[in-house]
Amino acid sequence: MNISFEPERLQVSRPLGETGTTILALTGDLDAGTTQKLAHRIGHVLAMDPTPETLVLDLGELSFLSLAGIRFLYAAHAGTGAECIRLRVVTGCRPAVLGALRATGFHAVLDCYDSTASAVLACGRAEFVDAVQASLGS
């Protein structure tokens, strides 16, 4: 009998976040074979009560990001937007992540940050516009 164990290629952890924010930290590979696992975890987040205002996907520890993974991120972006949840993506300093997003142009579509802290602390675009208008007396 030949038993082989393939190591888990994608790990998803949930560090503590600020109130109203859920963080999912990814380690490993995000590709066609692992997007279903992330979809399952995001499904749990969307089913939470109360639903978080912001979901932060920390990709800073990914070693590989395929086109299928990028497509999944775009679909998650659209899906969370439909649920009125802000999706923020942390790219970290990993060339595999940032390079793949830049090569496909998705860095301009997704709400990307260098660190988890900056993603958590950033206000939403609507809040920013409201703050600017309030400061201008509009």
Automatic annotation (TrEMBL):
<dbReference type="InterPro" id="IPR036513">
    <property type="entry name" value="STAS_dom_sf"/>
</dbReference>
<protein>
    <submittedName>
        <fullName>Anti-anti-sigma factor</fullName>
    </submittedName>
</protein>
<dbReference type="InterPro" id="IPR002645">
    <property type="entry name" value="STAS_dom"/>
</dbReference>
<dbReference type="Pfam" id="PF01740">
    <property type="entry name" value="STAS"/>
</dbReference>
<feature type="domain" description="STAS">
    <location>
        <begin position="20"/>
        <end position="123"/>
    </location>
</feature>
